[in-house]
Amino acid sequence: MELLYKDDWPAASERLRAFWANSAVGRAAIGVTAPRAKPLPGPPSPPPPSDLLARWTDPEYLIEGARASFRSTLFGGEAVPSLFVNLGPGIIAAYLGSEPAFAETTVWFGELPDFDWARPPQFHPANSWWQTTRTLTQACAEALAGEGLVGITDLGGGSDVLAALRGTENLLLDLVTHPECVGEWMDHLARLWCRLFDELYSLTRDPLGGSLQWLALWAPGTMYNIASDFSCMVSPAMFDRFIAPELEALCRHLDFSLYHLDGPDAARHLDRLLAIPELGGIQWTPGAGVPQAAEWLPMLRSIQARGKRLHVHEAFENAERVLRGLKPEGLFLQTHAPTEAAALELLEKATAWAAGPRQS
Hints:
Layout: H1 9-20, E1 29-35, H2 52-57, H3 59-72, E2 73-77, E3 82-84, H4 92-95, E4 100-102, E5 107-109, H5 128-143, E6 149-151, H6 158-166, H7 168-177, H8 179-204, E7 223-227, H9 236-253, E8 256-262, H10 270-274, E9 281-285, H11 297-305, E10 309-313, H12 319-325, E11 331-336, H13 340-355
Parallel strand pairs: 1-11, 3-6, 7-8, 8-9, 9-10, 10-11
Antiparallel strand pairs: 1-2, 4-5
Helix pairs in contact: 3-5, 5-8, 6-7, 6-8, 7-8, 8-9, 12-13
């Protein structure tokens, strides 16, 4: 496979395969982007459409914007030029009748006021938002073939989708008042998730059989960054009963997986997550207003000690501390450098750091 904007793809794909094998080739896998010192020739990014919805769903605008970004960006190390089909986190809610509200930088999904456990909403393939997702995904994948990869949209975790449909407070009460209904629906959403993922994978699958998602992290097969932000509000016992079974089902369905561990409140479930044999690893997001990844090295080392892969997003100025503090095997560091020269220097130094002792 060749990528127009990634001439070192063979070496990058080798390191990415090593990452998924919980190994390393000389250093940790590092996805470092930076502004190109000399952008490649081509037209600038198109102006955003005046219509807000078109900024999210107009394929021509998204494709040409991605190309302009590819030309102006260095994709260093294991960073991959890609376009993420972004229709909001947990778009499955819209496939089940929730009306999305598009803002400048995010999408919200409103609860269904007539939600009834006795008559829960059904998925219909003709749903307009599902058809929009398929059409947009296919158009982007076909247009960017050989240039960059296309990431599968954020389908969302079952508990987050259900929280959108029911309303978070309602769902928290349902865990106590309607536990059987919640459990049955979580099973139903897991089956629906797998069905929808498979169809989108068939549209975005690259010539190597690989895939990526909103992390822009490539894997040589089916892969997803599964999640449950709702888990921050439940006890370990409820997590074990209502959320873990869905995560286990998704992990069994995928070739590769990471779990999006979002913030200290979610970390209470870390031991349970690490006990899932099929879960490939943890993608740690410290969250807003708390110390960044470099301040969590003891916890991150404990994840590596359990044999799980680790994905860390860190500010460039803290990259050295992360790379020196964690073992390179099964580690992916994502960062953004201020200049092309700084990105290339980081990649060069990372090999020496990998061979040295781990630092606190």
